[in-house]
Amino acid sequence: MDFGPSRVAISNAVVSFERDIAGEIKDKTKSTRRYHRKMDRQRRAANPQNYNANGTIRKGRKTWLKKIRYQQTQAKHAESCRQAAAQRKSIHGNLTYDVLTLGTEVIVEKVSYKAWQRSRFGKSIAKHGPSALEGTLTRKAENARGSVTRVNTYQTALSSTCLCGARCKKTLSQRFHACTVCGLGTAAPLPRDTFSAYLAIFTESETVSRKKGKAATLSSRLDLEAANSHAPGHRTLSCVLSAAAFSQKPRPASRPAVEVATQVAAQVQSPEALNTDGGHELRVPRGLGAKSGSRADLESAKPRQRKPARQVRNAVTSDASRIPFL
Ligand SMILES: [Zn+2]
After folding, report:
1. Whole-model pTM?
2. CA–CA–CA angle 244, 249, 250 (5° rounding)
3. How far is the CA of 200 from the centre of ligand 1 (A)?
4. CA 182 / ligand 1 centre spacing (Å)
5. Does residue 35 have a pLDDT over 90?
6. Dihedral through CA 13, CA 15, CA 16, CA 20, nearest 10?
7. Ligand 1: distance of its center to the CA of 38 in Å?
8. How remote is the CA of residue 54 from the centroid of ligand 1, in Å?
9. Sign of torsion, CA 194 195 198 202?
10. 164: CA distance to ligand 1 center in Å?
């Protein structure tokens, strides 16, 4: 996974996609600002002794009078914040669930959300809460006997490394990966976050367990060879690769993670096959029921009708094809 202040790119060995961290959340920046201004006005009206003539706050010890109207505004503001937090939490839960259907061994970059918050993404971080999402993800992955590994960004440089090994730093506004050395991403657009999420799969980290059961990452390494050999089998990357007319190497199935991924790929194809079969099966009993016209026939036909549909639905939830991005 590759975290941004408001978006996250998710990738396994087969698929990758991007999602908003809390995209559907209601934008409350305007109403929050209005609450803050209203409370400021009310504070000033009730406590003129605490302000200088030019409107600045007086130095020294002060007592503040909170009038009833001020308290009401404060309560409304608090309720608005609570709603946003609850909504965010729910969205994070859904997203976490979607991620864990792809796999429970999650690899993320070790980034400082606090530094982001301080530097230039303060409002965005406050709205989306990427750190809270990572916390939820860690907790739920561990409950599912998985883990969340944090790789060292300095050693792996996922956002600037290419499949050919060339390193090229991108500015924040450069949203796509385009290598000047091998030409990857020049023929077809390759979103940079999606690409670094894919590369993150092939990092290996040495970890040491510290106090309170927390694991600390000592060093991380990016296995570019593995990343190269699995790229042709990856849905997003294979499109980019074929667009660039890359020479496709034969794909060894050495890593167990990849074997799992190929199984998932087989499952991805199977629901489509099921769907076409299921479509035929759905029609036949319905036609028979209409001919005979008896209720017993219809009822006996019903479970047969539903069965393929349910199989399809289960198959879809267990793999990656449910992702709208694809
Ligand atoms: Zn390259």
Report:
1. 0.62
2. 140
3. 16
4. 4
5. yes
6. -130
7. 54
8. 60
9. negative
10. 4
Compute the distance between CA of residue 297 and CA of residue 299 in angstroms, rounded to an integer: 5
Strand partners, 221: 204
Neighbours of 145 (CB within 10 A): 8
pLDDT digits (tens, 9 = 90+) for 72-123: 999 999 999 999 889 889 888 888 888 888 888 888 888 787 887 888 787 7
- Single-letter amino acid code for the residue at 169: K
How sure is the predictor about 282, in pLDDT bands with cuts at 50, 70 and 90? Answer: very low
Q: Check: CB of residue 38 under 8 Å from CB of residue 67.
A: no
pLDDT of residue 248: 44
Please tell me the distance from the alpha carbon of residue 278 to that of residue 273, in angstroms, as a whole number. 8
Can you tell me which residue has the tokens 């034969």?
A: 250
Q: Do residues 193 and 9 make contact, with C-beta atoms less than 8 angstroms apart?
A: yes
The predicted structure's pLDDT at residue 42: 95
